[in-house]
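User: Let's play a game. I give you a shape written as tokens, and you guess the letters that built it. Ready? Here's round one.
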């Protein structure tokens, strides 16, 4: 499973209207079903964002992604690694963490 950082750009509107105060149980049940479906969609989006994680237990680097089913980091993964006294941010390009290239993005120098 490839984890991708994504922004929730869909407007989720929790359905709330006159059906909630209806005395008809069929109308209330219809409303509750719509509410449950909307909440499930929102939960799926939250889970997707929660899967963006920081893997602290993989060598000397901090990885900002999860490994895929093959046990490697997918293309587009970011990591922060210590180089000397500085921290360097790198992104994985042109393949996975076995065949790809970690490319320098920026350096964070240690404060004096």
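Assistant: Ready! My guess for every position:
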């Amino acid at each position: 499973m490839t984890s991708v950082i994504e922004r929730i750009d869909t407007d989720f509107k929790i359905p709330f209207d006159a059906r909630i105060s209806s005395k008809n149980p069929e109308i209330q049940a219809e409303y509750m079903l719509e509410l449950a479906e909307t909440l499930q969609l929102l939960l799926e989006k939250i889970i997707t964002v929660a899967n963006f994680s920081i893997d602290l237990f993989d060598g000397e680097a901090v990885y900002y992604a999860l490994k895929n089913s093959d046990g490697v980091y997918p293309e587009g993964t970011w990591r922060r690694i210590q180089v000397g006294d500085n921290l360097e941010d790198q992104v994985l390009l042109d393949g996975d963490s076995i065949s790809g290239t970690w490319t320098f993005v920026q350096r964070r120098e240690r404060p004096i």
